[in-house]
Description:
15 helices, 18 strands, 38% helix, disordered N terminus
Amino acid sequence: MQFGHLNRRDFILGVSGLAAAFPLAASAQQLREPAINIGVLTDMSGPFATLAGAGSVTAAEMAVREFGGEVLGKKVRVLFGDHKHKVEIASALVTQWFNDEYVGAIFDMPNSGVALACQKLASERGRISATVSGGSSDLTGKDCTSTWAYDTYSNTAGIASAMVKFGLDTWYFITVDYAFGWQLEQDASAAIERVGGRVLGRSRHPLNAKSFLEYLDAAQDSGAKVIALGSAGSDTINALTQAAEIGISPRSQTLCPLLVFISEVHALGLDVAKGMTFIDGFYWDADDQTRTWSKQFFDRRKVMPTMSHAGVYSSVLHYLRAVRAAGTDDAKAVASKMRDLRVNDFFAKGGEIRADGRLIHDMYLVEVKAPEESRRPWDYYKILSIIPGDQAFRPLGEGKCPLVPA
Length: 406
């Protein structure tokens, strides 16, 4: 089957069974057997491959295994694919999944542009989508369906306004130039200006940039008290590493990365990352439940899970519970059950899915430990406070989601 000049192999990386992490793709005959098929659409090879990627596939498999491997008398199969940060590639892959592989739900989508396009496609085709790694607040705004882990509002509004009140009232943004970065900057700027702060300037960089020196120079020249990084994954790692190399520190200007995953802290090392403060939706060492699941994940991946990995597990498990409760995998019935049922796992204890599709769960304000404070591998965070879910996310009425009654 051809998709323009790319063939099917360019799109689908495989079908994941329960026995191994990445077996060969199942045959068409196997996929036509009675089954509940779900798709993990992720970044297997780009800037978000570590924070999502193969770890998200593993997390989905763990959820299926935890559930028992079948529902309504049908086996559950996990497909996965690399969207390569191209909307056209992602859309073609998801269309092929829907048409030929009988996929009923898609998960993860670490790229807000991809997530916005694919959740719209899923809605049009009567399928379920749950965005976990994509973060634009538009995903629960004008383009709402279901969003699981975090968004650009939850990761900016509280911390930005708190910093301004502390006297850090002038900001310069270094922002990745696509939907996620634009919305992250917009939500942060609104929070800054609400409490009397000012945005002095901004630079936009391409996704997966290698050099940030010109953007960091412009930020230094602006005289802003805060340099905000509106990026994620390898972009955040590169920007922070290069900022350290040229001597940017709190003594001169405060660096504020607006989205950080533990995979990035691990890559940077505590010598560079120490003292960074930010919002995260999951920490492996938060309590006994998170530790138990995270150690199971570590046994499979040899790294501790990120917020994305935990969110994929949670969303897949909740979807399967909703299919069982609905007695069908019909998307309309399952979506209704997903909202009716509380999300009850280590990621969201009693979490509620609002009318706009936003999962309401607690978020963490964390600070990265200094090397001498870390007692063992991956002991990276001090949890400064827990932000209740009803405070962490944008109020329901402000998002302009068409699913919310006027």
